[in-house]
């Protein structure tokens, strides 16, 4: 078996200008602009359009919410926990209410997930499962307070002053939530 190495001046390997070696197809530069790759990574107009449309749709989600239905729109929406019983939080704890009654989030140290149910204005979470990393100092105290509150039935109260939601436990503790962008 012989293998022939082509050289630049080899007439048998040259193609007419504007044609590629792949099945004699046109070079990208000779294609119409809408079929031509735009980036070095080869993404064209269609991929960019889909990306822009999806990003735009998610950006518009908060615009359809009215103040009177804020607690009901919670599924699929992320909330930053900004205060625990009036004390500001550290390391950005958050909670996400998902479709189908699922809830997940982070205490700022450990992640958690479980079930959520709402009857009237009372939200009940649990049972919750969480990771178990050690959380030192203020972060550990914050986590204990958050998990303690999430283990109780919580009254959902719309806070018109901050456009947020406050979850109030029967023992008087609370979680202040702000919708995440």
Automatic annotation (TrEMBL):
DUF306 domain: residues covered: 76-159
Region spans: Disordered: 1-42
InterPro entries: DUF306_Meta_HslJ, HslJ-like_sf, Hsp_HslJ-like
Pfam family, one: META
Composition skew (Basic and acidic residues), residue ranges: 1-13
Domain of life: Bacteria
The name this protein goes by in its record: DUF306 domain-containing protein
Species assigned in the record: Pararhodobacter aggregans
Lineage: Bacteria, Pseudomonadati, Pseudomonadota, Alphaproteobacteria, Rhodobacterales
């Amino acid at each position: 078996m012989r293998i022939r190495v082509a050289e630049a001046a080899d007439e048998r390997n040259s193609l007419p200008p504007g044609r590629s070696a792949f099945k004699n197809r046109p070079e990208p530069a000779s294609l119409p602009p809408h079929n031509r790759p735009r980036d070095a990574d080869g993404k064209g107009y269609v991929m960019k359009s889909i990306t822009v449309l999806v990003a735009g749709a998610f950006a518009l989600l908060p615009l359809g919410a009215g103040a009177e239905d804020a607690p009901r729109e919670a599924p699929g929406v992320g909330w930053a926990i900004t205060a625990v019983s009036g004390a500001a939080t550290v390391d950005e704890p958050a909670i996400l209410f998902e479709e189908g009654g699922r809830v997940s989030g982070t205490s700022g140290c450990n992640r958690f997930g479980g079930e959520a149910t709402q009857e009237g204005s009372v939200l009940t979470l649990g049972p919750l499962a969480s990771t178990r990393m050690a959380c030192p100092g203020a972060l550990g105290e914050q986590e204990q307070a958050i998990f303690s509150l999430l283990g109780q039935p919580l009254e959902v109260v719309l806070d018109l002053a901050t456009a947020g939601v406050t979850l109030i436990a029967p023992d008087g503790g609370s979680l202040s939530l702000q919708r995440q962008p």
